[in-house]
Amino acid sequence: xxxxxxxxxxxxxxxxxxxxxxxxxxxxxxxxxxxxxxxxxxxxxxxxxxxxxxxxxxxxxxxxxxxxxxxxxxxxxxxxxxxxxxxxxxxxxxxxxxxxxxxxxxxxxxxxxxxxxxxxxxxxxxxxxxxxxxxxxxxxxxxxxxxxxxxxxxxxxxxxxxxxxxxxxxxxxxxxxxxxxxxxxxxxxxxxxxxxxxxxxxxxxxxxxxxxxxxxxxxxxxxxxxxxxxxxxxxxxxxxxxxxxxxxxxxxxxxxxxxxxxxxxxxxxxxxxxxxxxxxxxxxxxxxxxxxxxxxxxxxxxxxxxxxxxxxxxxxxxxxxxxxxxxxxxxxxxxxxxxxxxxxxxxxxxxxxxxxxxxxxxxxxxxxxxxxxxxxxxxxxxxxxxxxxxxxxxxxxxxxxxxxxxxxxxxxxxxxxxxxxxxxxxxxxxxxxxxxxxxxxxxxxxxxxxxxxxxxxxxxxxxxxxxxxxxxxxxxxxxxxxxxxxxxxxxxxxxxxxxxxxxxxxxxxxxxxxxxxxxxxxxxxxxxxxxxxxxxxxxxxxxxxxxxxxxxxxxxxxxxxxxxxxxxxxxxxxxxxxxxxxxxxxxxxxxxxxxxxxxxxxxxxxxxxxxxxxxxxxxxxxxxxxxxxxxxxxxxxxxxxxxxxxxxxxxxxxxxxxxxxxxxxxxxx
Length: 669
What we know:
Mean pLDDT: 97
Shape: globular
Strand content: 5-15%
EC number: 1.3.5.1
CATH class of the domain at 267-429: Alpha Beta
Protein name: succinate dehydrogenase
CATH topology of the domain at 267-429: Flavocytochrome C3, Chain A, domain 1
Largest sheet: 5 strands, parallel
Structural class: alpha+beta
Subcellular location: Cell membrane
CATH superfamily of the domain at 267-429: Succinate dehydrogenase/fumarate reductase flavoprotein, catalytic domain
Membrane topology: Peripheral membrane protein
Radius of gyration: 25 Å
CATH architecture of the domain at 267-429: Alpha-Beta Complex
Low-confidence stretches: none
Helix content: 25-40%
Domain Fumarate reductase/succinate dehydrogenase flavoprotein-like C-terminal: 533-668
Number of strands: 19
Number of helices: 17
């Protein structure tokens, strides 16, 4: 099957406008005749459902949480990018476009990224109109800060809870449509299969998580906005419920899965502290604006810290290695996430880690310099040109508290350490996934009528996502892309009429789901679902994690195959199908993670280069930076499902062509 990305012709700055001008429309009087299903109600799903409801379509929205307000988008802390140039520091649509392509190590689709940069400004206007309380400067203008991979300030934020505030804005818009009856909300429902009729997406099979009842729902189009798959690693910054099931079910029915090996390791997470830990905690990348990352220069100092014999505050300035500032002077602590993560791993692997655990994985994020600088500025602003050290520290702490107070509070609650007084301990952890379901320019998968939005698709970030771009993509897809492109598809559906859920395709899909549920409940195993999930995560982190090599990836593929076989033989799922059964939910999701994990390893094995978050140890330059192979691997790897054995998956390639950006080696020095 040939991949048609449907990228419009013309200059990059005109593609989206010209494309919109020639898309088919659905007249307002015809929209109530059309049903749309939205799976997932995070930023992408909630904004899409609200927008389509406002337009007059009949929308059914599904989430496995008890409320859309519990979607994982709420956990995003640092901010959302937009090319407004409010700081007058040289930003532009083109520069946001360029930074995103470069940050993704030249493995993103050019046209999609430019469209994202184009609509970014509209997102901020939309959210301000909704009442999202973005931070503002003294004069009332919206404030901005910097994030990794940029040299401008383009990130809009609401303290350390930007995702929460944006989600509440989208939720308010969604709630209005629910109140008007144009969106029907299905909380505590999980999509367990997609239904195709004559090759087109025509509905889903969902399980009511409270009663266990399987339900059939029909529609003229289905939107999957169910987030990423970072929980394949078990330990990640994702909520425990985050999973790949919706995306994987459509993959098994014909939607290609693209670039599964592109996983983002976030450099600013609280280190692992025990074997019984269930998830990891992210400290916002915004903290890298003000914090300086370092380890001791002397191994003996690092060893003393790990042994509890030395405190970081006792390490003299000249004995600290600010390794990001040393290695990347142009960007310093604000290099992209993949670069910062690998640099931390390199220092810890060399014996300079500061966290006293079995792996000695940890570095410092230190705010003492910023506290002093901002304290001095604040004193001068108050007319005190000769402040004491104590006055400087007090004013500096107050400034930091206003910017990051809730983040510091969260860190102290988790670690019992005061980050105003002693540096934070951080280490990279699995965070975001750049891979996902393959979509064309219209965000439609290889299943006609099945669209994919937000983190669930692959399209906008290449091999590494820049900080503060996830919220941007989710809202761009939901508010400003899908309402146009899905209408173009639905224009041919106004005469279709209501789709019956009694069709044989619905019956067969429901029976398949029921059989998979009964298989787990009737299994006489002896091990819990988490037992297998943790083992899968161990394989993934060690062999398909921050650094990969041919031997490890080959071993991972075989080990996951063995683990999957053992999982089906020996997993124990208590309870029944017709009740609230969290263990059954987990079993169904981990079954999908098993297949996905194997495909991730295969994709990483075949991509014999290093780019962004995909770092093959065999392919690095003399300074340990990524070594791309643009001649052989400048493509999107889109995989076609051929059964649970990933070895049989078929690779399709979408060649990446850069007409408006010159490809170069990434350089942040």
